[in-house]
Amino acid sequence: MSQTLAAKAQQKSVYERELMAMVIAIQKWRPYLLGKHFKVHTDQKSLKFITEQRVMGEDQQKWLSKLIGYDFEVKYKPGKENSAADSFSRQMQYSHITTVQSEAWNGLEEEVQRDEKLKGIVQALLADPLSQKGFQLKGGRLYYEGRIVVPKGSPRISWILNEFHDTAVGGHSGYLRTYKRISSVVYWEVDEISKLTMERNLMIKELQEQLLKAQDMMRNQANKHRREVVYEVGDKVFLKIQPYKMKSLAKRLNQKLSPRFYGPYEIVKRVGEVAYQLKLPDDTRVHPVFHVSLLKKTISASAEPQPLPDCMNEDWYLEPVPEKGMDYRRNDQGDWEVLVKWKDLPEFENSWELAERLKEEFPVFFLKVKEVFEGRGIGRYGRQYVRKRKKEKERE
């Protein structure tokens, strides 16, 4: 093993440094030495009597306390007889001067010469190296404040963006970090519009990568809840149409108690990989092809098919038609509401609808309701309520 001592430790005496080296070596190989008897060979003769010394300094006591529990003895071996150990620490070493060459920068000097502005800077530096502030020549290449200069509009710029962002070395660091890394190594002159364009391109790349990551995460989460379901032609399945969309029917408070499945219906054929065509009633206006997620296989084969609502159109919207006004009331806002019985729908689908809404969407039905409830005050009270609101506003 080999370890460099700290600057403070190097100022200690030879004896203390040799003691530190011995203790560090024993601690290094502790798993192999603990519980066994071993010998320590050293060229420092005074260490031979380390365990027999009676007077010690604080540093010696600290280091010797770390040797408690070890069974060892120190053997003195002169340095001239221990040449094998010294050869490892005294062998001659050479400092190699190496440089990294990249073919990507080949021909950069020619591009700089084709740029009139940079060409003038190079000629001025050749005449006087201090004439151009911030610029300098190194190995025939032009640098600005320690950054290699690339001509404006050079095709290398797109390569640089790709290397600093898309490659494994670039690491997809993000827009701002990539921009800072490029600007610390490479320099090219840009106007404000070109700078904004470069920043935009980096930002677009970052957005595209983040969108792909988000799509992968959403796909993985969705696949956790998906199941492989395959039906055969002739199987009977229930059709899920809940929650269906209601175009003019008021939303019910007990919406979750509405029917969730209709059927069962027989599978006629398979359409693609995830869709099936069902045998629906002839008077149904809904398209008969459905995704597999909307189907549920029946347990009993003797179940009778349940017809779809007559008021459901091809877009799965319920378009109910009011049939009869059952009752009326005034809500907390003072508006009149009518309890409507809808045609071809059961009684539990009856809903309270605003009179003004019925007047706009079903004017003929509203006239019939108005005639029925006119004598009970619905029309008269509505006019009185409007006049009352006008007077309140005038007072304010």
From TrEMBL:
What SUPFAM superfamilies does the record tag this protein with? Chromo domain-like, DNA/RNA polymerases
State which residue ranges cross the membrane.
Answer: none
Q: Which Gene3D superfamilies match?
A: 1.10.340.70, 2.40.50.40
Q: Which UniProt keywords apply?
A: Aspartyl protease, DNA integration, DNA recombination, DNA-binding, DNA-directed DNA polymerase, Endonuclease, Hydrolase, Magnesium, Metal-binding, Nuclease, Nucleotidyltransferase, Protease, RNA-directed DNA polymerase, Transferase
Q: Which domain of life is it from?
A: Eukaryota
Record-annotated Chromo domain positions: 320-393
Q: GO molecular function terms here?
A: aspartic-type endopeptidase activity; DNA binding; DNA-directed DNA polymerase activity; endonuclease activity; metal ion binding; RNA-directed DNA polymerase activity
Q: Does the keyword DNA-binding apply?
A: yes
Whether ATP-binding counts among this entry's keywords is no
**Record GO biological process:** DNA integration; DNA recombination; proteolysis
PANTHER family associated with the record:
PROTEIN CBG26694, PROTEIN NYNRIN-LIKE
Name of protein: Chromo domain-containing protein
Q: Which organism is it from?
A: Pisum sativum
